[in-house]
Amino acid sequence: MSADGGLPGRACSRPGEVAEPVRDPGLQPERTRLAWRRTTLSGTVAAVLAMKTALHGGVSLAGTVVCALCFGLWLGFLALAHRRIRVLATSTEPASLAPRHATATVLVTVALAVCAVALVF
Fold first, then answer.
1. Of 34, 112, 41, 40, which is closest to residue 81 (Cα–Cα)?
2. Burial 31-47 (b: 16+ CB within 10 A, else e)
């Protein structure tokens, strides 16, 4: 209990009023930001390996197209991830990820996975 008789961590404007607890995000936004950075690094490594695999037998039209596609998808993911990292780093209470950004991130990730499967087979 606090000195005014209320519960700790609650903001009340009038006596007897029950208010929502004050959210303490702790280190969660920082952990999420670091997870986005790790995912971006993993995506970079995967895109580079995919491009290397596509050009392994020499430069061909199909290999060049796959490299360009992987590079474009990687740039799209990088832009989406960097935007989210910036939001998490600049705000003490960051907004949730917009559904269109989440959908775009999933689509880019799935497209990169499809490219990887196509390169393996």
1. 40
2. ebbeebeeebeebeebb
Token readout for 28 is: 């969660």
Here the tokens at position 56 are 């392994």
pLDDT in single tens digits along all 121 residues of the chain:
444 444 444 555 566 666 666 666 678 888 888 999 999 998 888 888 877 877 787 888 877 888 888 889 989 999 999 999 888 888 777 788 889 999 999 999 898 888 877 777 7
* The three-state (H, E, C) secondary structure of 99-117, written as one string: HHHHHHHHHHHHHHHHHHH
How far apart (Å, rounded) are the C-alpha atoms in residues 54 and 48? 10
Do the beta carbons of residue 112 and residue 43 sit within 8 Å?
yes
Tokens coding 34: 């670091």
Q: What angle do CA 120, 71, 99 make, to 5 degrees?
A: 100
pTM over 0.85? The answer is no
Query: 3-state DSSP call for residue 86?
Result: helix
